[in-house]
Design goal:
With 208 residues, this protein is α+β, with helices and mostly antiparallel strands. 33% of the residues lie in helices and 18% in strands. It is built from eight helices and nine strands. It binds zinc ion (2 copies).
């Protein structure tokens, strides 16, 4: 396993070239997940899937620590605004969810008394604290079946309403026809009518 400092440097390089406190628990969550699941981290293959509950600083640390990436289909973001991640061994389905201990921030200061600021105390303290002081973890069962999550079967249909392609069986079926989730009412955006005023909420229109 590469040293924590090496992984933090790699994470910082992705992260505008500088380390920051939240990357540290990210890297350490991935390292501990490897120990808990008995898998090598950073992984060399695609056995680990990590479901990350935030984006931003911690996600960079998590990605580097586990070698899991969105583009490799080994990382998924389910943005709940929480520094937390569930690591799944895709061979066995075993899953463990990790997050920083609720009082980790306060404990960090005690581990780095020489730090010139709270920010530095967190950056240093998070590197020095033992796992069980920095992190908390729970064994979990996935609520979504692993084959559905992984979408290994692939698949490609065209939405019957908007005509766009839907991959990985993410469509829903309405009256026997494939429909994308946006057209099925789960869109995160509204389509503006031509000429609609920018200061008014747009009406949802569908192209079908
Ligand atoms: Zn950051
Ligand atoms: Zn559609």
């Amino acid at each position: 396993m590469p040293a924590l400092s090496e992984l933090l440097q790699a994470s910082a390089r992705l992260h505008e070239g500088r380390p920051c406190p939240r990357q540290v628990p990210g890297v350490r969550m991935s390292l501990l997940a490897g120990t808990l699941l008995g898998l090598e981290v950073p992984q060399r293959d695609k056995r680990f899937l990590v479901i990350v509950e935030t984006y931003g600083c911690a996600a960079d640390g998590i990605a580097v620590g586990a070698n899991c990436w969105v583009g490799r289909r080994t990382m998924r973001i389910v943005d709940l605004g929480k520094v937390a991640a569930t690591y799944v061994d895709t061979h066995s389905g075993t899953a463990v969810r990790l997050h920083p201990h609720p009082v980790a921030r306060e404990r960090a200061a005690a581990c780095a008394p020489e730090a010139p600021s709270r920010w530095h105390a967190q950056l240093l303290g998070y590197q020095r604290m033992p796992d069980e002081e920095l992190l908390a973890w729970t064994w979990v069962e996935l609520a979504i079946p692993l084959p559905v999550l992984l979408a290994r079967a692939g698949g490609r249909v065209h939405c019957w309403r908007c005509g766009e392609e839907v991959l990985d069986q993410r469509e829903v079926w309405i009256e026997g026809k494939p429909v994308c989730r946006s057209c099925a009412g789960e869109a995160y955006y509204w389509i503006r009518e031509p000429g609609a005023r920018a200061d008014r909420p747009a009406a949802l229109t569908q192209r079908a």
